[in-house]
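User: two proteins, same treatment. go.

Assistant:
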Amino acid sequence: MGREEVIGHHLRYDRADEFMEIVLGHWDAWEDDAIVQDKASGLFARPDKVRRLDYQGRYFGSRGPFTVPRSAQGHPVIIQAGSSGRGKLFGARWGEVIFVVYPNVEVGKRDYAQFKADVARFGRDPDQVKITHLINTVAAETKAEAEDKWAEIEKLPLEIDALSLLSEALNFDFARKGMDQPFTESELEEMSGLQGIRDRVVSGGGKKNPTVRDFIRISGRGRVHNPIMGGPKEVADQLEQWFAAPACDGFVLSATHVPGAYEDFVRFVVPELQRRGLFRNDYTGTTLRENLGLPRPQIGAWHVSR
């Protein structure tokens, strides 16, 4: 915001590392038993239970302590989405819920295992980092009804939608190129947005210099490709396959259309998942963290001082 140009890809993550050190340092400033609220003595909080933060980094400087104590969750759940190599390392260091898009179960198994190993290398418990895979579902009472729905949904996207979304995501004006004109290496380097999309197109298409049409086809931007489709059993079977592999710890459900897609999932798929013991019948607790199965972070576990 307010900058004349986008910060370099790796520098953005270096800057984000400092930002995370600061906010986590502030969120952990107050120990859980710091507040006394003793009117008789006039003591609101015990000074030895409140941490001071004096942070000076390359990009940020910040002093503490924070002005309010910890929340019921300890601190907000850190949700991260970045599929470039540097983005994955950032997620392994800081993330608690990781948003991923895998093309198939086998790739998912490989990348899931690799990411969990990266989490462990940062000295963190891999079981406390949840990897959630993006899915699109077309659900109905029967497989035949779901196929009829999909036939209508496929007619909705337009080519201009994909071009607009690619331009936005990659910070590159795709109108500069003809549909079948290859990108030069310098143009590919110029794409300073979500580089995971660019890398997926280059590796997935087998071309060193993909075209605009390749980007539309391989990225799937603006379209739904290979949705999980069918009646309750067919959809639940595929979700169970991903979960059991394991290729993910859970899912992020993206609607193929609104209104209707989320309602169809709840109506047709959730009861089948509950019947199989794969989806809860009640909420675990009152916070997002509890319902994700994540522990309340210990005080000072993230504290960094420079």
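Protein 2:
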Amino acid sequence: MSELASAMGIRTAEAAIVAELKSGSEDAFSWLIAHYNQPVYSLVYRILDDPSDAADTTQEVFIKVFRGIRNFNADSSLKTWIYRIAVHEASNHRRWWLRHKARETSIEPAVGDEQGVLSIKNTLVDEGKSPLQNVYDEELRARVEVELKALAEPYRTTVILRDIEELSYEQISEVMNIPLGTVRSRLVRGREALRKRLERHPETFGMETAAAREKKRRKGSSMGGQEIEVMP
């Protein structure tokens, strides 16, 4: 009952904010940008992998929000609607980049080689074991970020929306305009692809490969099966 009341309270508050936005309230738009700028930037950055492009695209997202808020009919939450615009704008920019900018050869070092990557959540809220569950410190998060960026679309965006932004399956379906079954399929395939990429760095993530397990088994057999206690 308390959860229902809380949800109703959130919807009521959101409806009031939307009404203020539609009326052209500058305070409401200031709140909107302050509340959503960083989440939108983080989402766009992970899709584009370029800080400058992400900043420009984030501005475009809020321009689209400003222009389209009067057409917002509350079929989805305000957050879902904004994320849908963000994914659309970032995907369009990425397609443009692949067609045009990628043809250019830059002599400058990659930005990601010199700057720290954005942090990633340590634990993913979902059923089943996630490849990110054992990521605890910045070094490991950095490795996950690198491997996450290497995932093919649309699996990367699906994993980002679910495991980092923590959107529900229904919200992802609305944001990406795809059926729920497709959301689940892409998430499974995306996580599996990410897991395989992380397994290339077993020493970083504390993963024990099949070869390592076999080596340990043979070593144990050669010592007569005697167990040896290794002191920490």
